[in-house]
Amino acid sequence: MKKIKISPSILSADFSQLGNEIKRLEEGGADLIHVDVMDGHFVPNLTIGPPVIKALRKYSSIPFDVHLMISPVHKYIKDYADAGANIITIHPEATTNLMESIDHIKKLNKKVGVSLNPDTETNIIIDYLDKIDLVLIMSVFPGFGGQKFIPEVVEKIKQLNEIKKRRNLSFDIEVDGGINFSNSKTVVNAGANILVSGTTIFKENNGDIKKNINILKSV
Ligand code: DX5
Ligand code: ZN
Fold this sequence. Notes:
This protein is α/β, with parallel strands linked by helices. The chain contains eight helices and eight strands, in the order βαβαβαβαββαβαβαα.
């Protein structure tokens, strides 16, 4: 059984203190830092880009798990790699050639993830599963933190995990959106090994990050 990793989303952090917030996450036991990049086009929200990621890089040595909710994505991938991303996750709908974008990320020596929205079928990425490091299953429609978990995605996680075991593949299954103390065990039992969380980690237990990360880790 793979160790459960926690990737807190900084979308729920204090944006006026992002460097210190990232340090708090690392000190609180985060395994990865989930950086939600939004362009106001692929999703109806706008967050941060390469210059901010570059500025944040020196605040933590743990991997930046960069979730690109931008379209078109291909021509911007290198900017995020150069800014310090360790994992670059893209949405299939945001590129005209998914294999080309996957290869591009790998040639930049970064880990590659592909993200499935709640209404995107797993079969659109079935042929890429042996070429990627991570599948990011969205349990909310991307664009905002603090949304309600969509329970129908649990079946999708189970299906993906079945395919992974049957084909003896090793990609991580990361789940993102509305993860909390009451649904995290269900998600892990379905096959997820990386949990993204913003609201739960930053807001629960009076914002005790270390406590909240430990609760999510101990499912
Ligand atoms: C939504 C983002 C998620 C979100 C998670 O588009 O991709 O990473 O910030 O935040 P919570 O845990 O608050 O749903
Ligand atoms: Zn995300």
